[in-house]
Amino acid sequence: MPLTRRQIYRRRRLAVFGVLALLIGLFGYSAGALLRPVPAAAAMLESSDALTTSLVQQTTPVAWPGFGRGAIGAVGFDGVLSSSGEQTPFPIASITKTITSLVVLEAKPLAAGDQGPSITLTDADVGFYYDTIAENGSAAPVVAGSVFTQRQMLEALLLPSANNYSISLAVWAFGSVDAYLDAARAWLDARGLTGTTVTNTSGLGETNVSTPSDLVTIGKLVLADPVLSSIVKEPTAVLPAIGEVENTNALLGQYGVTGMKTGTDDASGACLLFSADLQVEGRTVTVVGVILGADDHTVLNEAVVSLLQSVPAGFHQVQLATAGQSVGSYSTAWDQAAKVVVASDASVLVWQDTPITVESRARAIDAGAAGSTVGKLSYTVGAGAEGGAATIDVPLALDADVAPVTPWWRLTNP
Hints:
By secondary structure, the chain is of the alpha+beta class. Helices cover 32% and strands 27% of the residues.
């Protein structure tokens, strides 16, 4: 039986609406598939333990003597790296003259290479000479009317360790010894050197004391001053009214020693505040150390040499990360993959087993070009590192392109 016109119309209408419904469904699906957010790919990174396993260093013994007390540090490193014996205040004898020099130069600055103002010595300075002789202190001759430069006065008190010239220089700079001592106390307080006390300009007597750690700090301050650092490394100098004087530091120029100041009296025994340039991992490290309380300078110098020979092995150039090193990966849902690699080399010089920790961070990505930065490694290095306790950031990058998700993938992955 042929279809009626009503039936034909009804069937046509159903077909049209069916097609429309299909088209609307396909459009809705496509729009949803193409527009819906696709989760970004998170980085899978190595654990902190895995990244720091190779950074653990071995400790090596430091050859401290069996007598006295001491400490050693290094320029660019915080505080003391190693110490021996009691660390309480102890008489420091003529090492005190380094403090005298630093305090005078704060009041009367002197530029590197300059001689400074002329200082004419008087009968009062001759009196200081005889007073020093009377108290059995180290002294250098004085002639009234002789003219010294400020630098020459510093050489007179630091090289032959002339007590009388330390008095003359302090009086010239401050007007009196008492005024100098007030300035010295303020100078020490301002630098947190609470273990150090000075009661005169020369260090004679048991009341001039310091701790080994304070002396390491003072030694670093001497090296940081271009005038004093150049003077303490002079083996000799020719001075007005005195003639040629020799540096009392018998180790100067040997075993890398570049200074700095001897000290000797009954209360302190033989003492040496020293600096030395040591070869460490193909580079030069300047150490500053002190040993107090030796029986004599022969015993003391032998101890310093043994100490210096043992120190380089305690430093380690640690390779924190190497460019190209893989530390993780990305894998996207749309079948893209790339490694997370270190973008640049990073290393640090540390003392002994200075602790090193690391935190790794990398952002989630939906695309990226090879070489683009995606995160960083943050290394925290303890105080026994060059530059002191610090955080060293190393960038992380992709080793390959990560293409964005494609429309086809979206349509075929509901």
